[in-house]
Design a protein that fits this description.
Blueprint: E1 4-5, E2 14-16, E3 19-22, E4 36-39, E5 42-44, E6 47-58, E7 65-73, E8 79-85, E9 92-98, E10 103-109, E11 118-129, E12 135-139, E13 143-147, E14 157-159, E15 161-165, E16 170-173, E17 176-178, E18 184-192, E19 199-208, E20 213-220, E21 227-230, E22 234-240, E23 252-261, E24 267-271, E25 276-279, E26 282-283, E27 286-288, E28 291-294, E29 297-304, E30 309-312, E31 315-317, E32 322-329, E33 333-340, E34 343-346, E35 350-354, E36 360-368, E37 370-378, E38 383-386, E39 389-392, E40 396-403, E41 407-414, E42 417-420, E43 424-428, E44 434-442, E45 444-451, E46 457-460, E47 463-466, E48 470-477, E49 481-488, E50 491-494, E51 498-502, E52 507-515, E53 523-528, E54 535-540, E55 548-554, E56 564-569, E57 573-576, E58 584-591, E59 605-608, E60 616-617, E61 623-626, E62 633-638, E63 645-652, E64 657-666, E65 668-672, E66 679-687, E67 690-698
Parallel strand pairs: 3-14, 4-14, 5-15, 16-27, 17-28, 29-36, 37-44, 45-52, 60-67
Antiparallel strand pairs: 1-13, 2-3, 4-6, 6-11, 7-10, 7-12, 7-13, 8-11, 9-10, 12-15, 16-18, 18-23, 19-22, 19-24, 19-25, 20-23, 21-22, 24-28, 25-26, 29-31, 30-32, 32-35, 33-34, 33-36, 37-39, 38-40, 40-43, 41-42, 41-44, 45-47, 46-48, 48-51, 49-50, 49-52, 53-54, 54-57, 55-56, 55-58, 58-59, 61-62, ...
Length: about 700
């Protein structure tokens, strides 16, 4: 047999065998064409009814239904299953009620090899509804629907239905009883309603909490011959008289249930599903109301805010007791008033009142005191501070320190104690004034001044300088050489051998010297705008030269037999294209002074094209190389936490590679350079997807 299980689970949604189970209306956001098994809701009077079950959207790929299994759970105290009727498709139908599981099992099998598309009514459930309470019919796990190929149809939504009672024409209600500990009291069962004109049978199920109430029997009133049985949590009240029915259109007490109160909290006696009243032999649409058992009354005290104070005097009180409550504010708060149900009942922190017949929740209200935040910048010229003013205790305070140009923020301090290294500092306002000092430090910059070739001359003035301090670098040429210009990043910044400026950033200056001749080679060779396959080359004239030749090739190429020559250059720059990625190149430049006079070739300059995948050059300042000049060990620090140094290469000014190494990705690296001869070197780093070039001097 082909079987598919359908499940409805009360008050929650679950999944079983790939299907979706939903309570009423939970599947509203599902696709409108999802296969759906839906039990209709119904509003009916107690008695027999037909409850329609629909099968919707079982068409197309989800159609050709050949086997169905539905498992439906309900409360047997409210609903009785009588069978199924009006099935919409032919085949073998079976319906069974399992008493132990409180469920209906419905199975269907189509003739072999056949199936049916469904998009409407599937069948009717024939039921008997007891009434008095709403009854839910819920699908259980194990429901399934298959097509004629014995394949389970997936994505089925199963929605249960609810049987609700029509407006009641009668009611059985209990009373509200106030008791004290160990008191014996009577709970009345009162019947009234237009439909109770010929009451001949009463069957009531009364639930109670045996930890709070002890059943002590009953006292007959309007009806006699009552039978009351006790299960320990539920009383079964039964009465029937078909000869002398009673008119309860006016309120009257059926009987009194007697209990002893043994608990310490309020409780209820509740009329439960299965309760019913017959008039003229027919179950009447009825409403059933619980009884309330009230004992001591509670006085609950709250603080608002809840940490702002302590409230004393709460507890349980009898009606008429004198209650005194006291509010004590915590440091940083002051008391405002007592409120009950948002209404102010007293402005005095000590409040006395007489206990009434209600549970009282009183709230002690407090407001936070205000305190001052004072901010000072040290030194005053180091920056400005924001956030001073008045703040309520417990509020969040954010102060900000903004460094002036040439200064940097160091820390926030209170009474010479550091409280934060963050320029934006957030704290909770304490119950006192706060004096905060923002400490700033003056920026110190590293100035590097080196010759383009230590054999041509010297450069002095390197060192560390504070912001705003004057810096003078001096270039002194050796015999037979002359000073040409100070360059930085390939650009000329001064043509004076003594160059003075104000320290405002780290600077790497090169003093460019050239051999004294009538036709001098250019200086300041530099490669910029690097990519994987291109580079823009720059140089500076040594004199009034206006034409140059350029020789380039891979690093270390033979300048006699190799390299590519570019002639007739009248600009001091040249764009190289079609280079190989991740490759080192050298280039030389010489001046063409006349048809018969050319200078010697310049010292070489070396560059490396980007590696494949490198998307940028690292921003200036994100990698530091020190000390510079260096004697033994060169230290490298990458300040970008998300990047790491992958490898490095060192070239001399002749373009020859003298060191290289690959590393694990690290943020700091130390390179031994004591074995290198004195001179100027170029360090190239691959930092993740960035290329970094640095120049250093080996002493």
């Amino acid at each position: 047999m082909r079987i598919l299980f359908l499940v409805i689970v009360f008050c929650f949604v679950t999944a079983w065998s790939g299907n979706v189970f939903a309570q009423n209306n939970i599947f509203r956001n599902l696709p409108t064409d999802a296969p759906l098994i839906d039990i209709h809701d119904a509003v009916v009077a107690p008695g027999e009814l037909y409850l329609q079950v629909d099968a919707l959207n079982f068409t197309g790929n989800q159609g050709q239904v050949a086997a169905i299994t539905l498992r439906i759970e309900f409360d047997t105290l409210l609903v009785e299953f009588l069978g199924i009727q009006n099935m919409s498709i032919p085949g073998s139908w079976l319906a069974n009620f399992n008493v132990l599981l409180n469920e209906i099992t419905i199975t269907y099998t189509a003739p072999f090899g056949t199936g049916h598309d469904l998009n409407g009514k599937l069948l009717d459930l024939k039921l008997k509804y007891i009434g008095g309470f709403s009854a839910d019919l819920e699908f259980k796990p194990g429901c399934e629907i298959s097509n004629k190929n014995l394949q389970t149809i997936t994505g089925v939504v199963y929605e249960g239905g609810t049987i609700s009672q029509t407006p009641p024409v009668g009611s059985v209600q209990q009373d509200s009883v106030v008791v004290i500990s160990n008191e014996i009291f009577q709970m009345p069962l009162i019947a009234q309603g237009a439909g109770y004109d010929l009451v001949n049978k009463v069957f009531l199920r009364v639930g109670y909490d045996s930890l709070q109430l002890q059943y002590n029997g009953y006292v007959e009133s309007a009806i006699s011959g009552v039978s009351v049985s006790n299960t320990g949590e539920v009383l079964i009240v039964a009465w029937q008289n078909d000869i002398l029915p009673i008119n309860f259109t006016e309120a009257d007490t059926l009987l009194f249930l007697t209990f002893k109160y043994v608990g310490d909290t309020n409780t209820v006696t509740s009329l439960l599903p299965g309760s019913k009243v017959y008039s003229n032999g027919v179950v009447v649409a009825s409403a059933f109301y619980n009884g309330v058992v009230r004992s001591l009354w509670a006085v609950e005290l709250l603080n608002n805010p809840d940490t702002a104070g302590i409230a004393l005097g709460g507890g349980n009180y009898f009606i008429g007791d004198t209650v005194t409550i006291t509010a004590i504010p915590e440091p940083g708060f002051y008391f405002t008033n007592w409120t009950k149900d948002t209404v102010v009942v007293s402005d005095d922190p000590v409040y006395t009142f007489i206990k009434s017949t209600s549970n009282d929740t009183l709230i002690a209200g407090y407001l936070a005191n205000s305190y001052e935040v004072f901010l000072v910048a040290i030194p005053i010229e180091g920056g400005n501070v924001l956030g001073s003013g008045s703040y309520s205790y417990g509020s969040m305070v954010t102060v900000s320190a903004n460094a002036s140009t040439g200064y940097h923020f160091i820390c926030w301090m209170i009474d010479n104690v550091i409280v934060s290294y963050e320029a934006d500092y957030t704290f909770v306002m304490p119950p006192h004034d706060v004096n905060l000092n923002a400490v700033f430090g003056i920026d110190v910059y590293t100035i590097s001044a080196v010759p383009n070739n230590p054999n041509y001359g010297t450069a002095s003035g390197s060192g560390e300088y504070s912001f705003g301090e004057p810096v003078t670098v001096v270039a002194t040429s050796f015999d037979e050489y002359r000073f040409i210009a100070w360059t930085e990043g390939g650009q000329a910044v001064s043509y004076d051998s003594m160059y003075t400026f104000i320290a405002s950033a780290n600077r790497n200056l090169i003093a460019n010297f050239q051999y004294i001749t009538d036709c001098s080679a250019p200086v300041g060779l530099f490669a910029d705008n690097l990519s994987e396959t291109s580079a823009l080359l720059f140089w500076l004239p040594s004199g009034i030269e206006q034409e140059w030749e350029l020789l380039w090739g891979t690093t270390g190429f033979d300048t006699i037999t190799g390299g590519e020559l570019v002639s007739n250059l009248v600009e001091t720059s040249y764009q190289l294209e079609n280079l190989n990625p991740g490759t080192g190149y050298d280039f030389y430049v010489r001046a063409v002074c006349s048809d018969l006079a050319v200078s010697r070739w310049s010292d070489p300059s070396t560059f490396t094209t980007w590696y494949v995948g490198i998307t940028r050059h690292q921003e200036p300042g994100t990698t530091n190389v020190y000390p510079n000049p260096v004697n033994q060990v060169l230290h490298i620090i990458c300040h970008e936490d998300t990047y790491g140094i992958l490898n490095y290469t060192v070239f001399n000014t002749a373009g020859l590679q003298v060191m290289d190494s690959k590393t694990e990705p690290v943020n700091a690296l130390s390179i031994p350079v004591g074995h290198l001869p004195p001179g100027v070197y170029i360090l190239r780093l691959v930092v993740d997807k960035a290329l970094v070039s640095k120049m250093f001097i080996k002493q």
